[in-house]
Write a structure and sequence with these properties.
two-stranded antiparallel ribbon; globular; DNA polymerase, domain 1; alpha/beta; 12% strand; single chain; Rossmann fold
């Protein structure tokens, strides 16, 4: 579960002070005026995976873990192979594979019901207040997500976040997925903002690595408390929820 605001800010005072300026030279940094988010940084996917208990009593965690693994493996495999299908399709394909691999019956109707959870996502408990604070600070907010445009727009509506984001950018526009550099470059092009004025806030460790490889200042919202990927790069800052991001940007100036 995400840490409370008080816990996160307490951690920030102790841990973020040394992470705010990796170079140690504030003068070399350009002002950040735009923050781009992965969808799962803002939207809570847990109810989707909780719903798996209906088709796999006592095995929902096992099914959900394999589904998540295949979901992202399929995005990477299709990117490498140049055989693009959108995120809705690869997510559904991952679900079908996971059910078959675990010998769990899954009808097309039930698969569709589970997938429709992606169209009814709610925000994580800390999201709304943190996003409002960032907007009050004059920052432009946008999504950069593998979600299809339909998935992004539906989630924004169901989470009551209409008007919060200047752009909802889907990597579907360039028919690829993160961490392909073309996916990260899309935000620079759509927002017409230099990459050194953009901060990227991913949900997954591999996405944090991808953002850093591309050249974004990156703050990892590590809601699951997982260790960083061993890929030779690390995020500029990290916390368990968006309160830590707010504090990081406040300290950064």
């Amino acid at each position: 579960m995400p840490l409370t605001r008080r816990e996160t800010l307490g951690m920030a005072g102790a841990a973020l002070a040394g992470a705010v300026l990796p170079s140690g030279l504030r003068a070399q940094q350009k002002k950040i005026d735009t923050v781009i988010f992965d969808a799962f940084t803002v939207f809570d996917p847990r109810p989707i995976f909780d719903s798996l208990e209906e088709i796999a009593p006592g095995r929902a965690k096992e099914l959900g873990t394999l589904w998540r693994t295949r979901q992202f493996e399929y995005t990477w495999l299709r990117t490498v192979a140049g055989e693009y299908e959108d995120f809705w399709k690869v997510t559904r394909d991952g679900l079908v594979y996971a059910a078959e691999a675990l010998h769990i019956p899954l009808s097309p109707r039930k698969a569709q019901q589970i997938m429709n959870g992606y169209l009814r996502l709610q925000a994580w408990p800390d999201s709304k207040a943190a996003l409002e604070t960032l907007k009050e600070q004059g920052l432009k907010l946008a999504f950069l997500s593998n979600f299809t445009p339909r998935m992004l727009n539906a989630a924004i509506g169901s989470a009551d976040l209409s008007g919060t984001f200047a752009k909802a950018i889907s990597t579907d526009a360039v028919r690829t997925f993160k961490p392909d550099p073309r996916a990260y470059r899309l935000a620079v092009e759509v927002l017409r903002t230099p990459r050194d004025r953009i901060l990227f806030a991913p949900f997954a460790g591999w996405d944090a690595a991808g953002g850093k490889w591309f050249g974004y200042e990156t703050f990892w919202v590590n809601r699951l408390g997982t260790p960083p990927e061993v890929l030779g790069v690390k995020a500029d800052g990290m916390s368990r929820n968006l309160d830590g991001l707010v504090e990081y940007l406040r300290l950064r100036g």
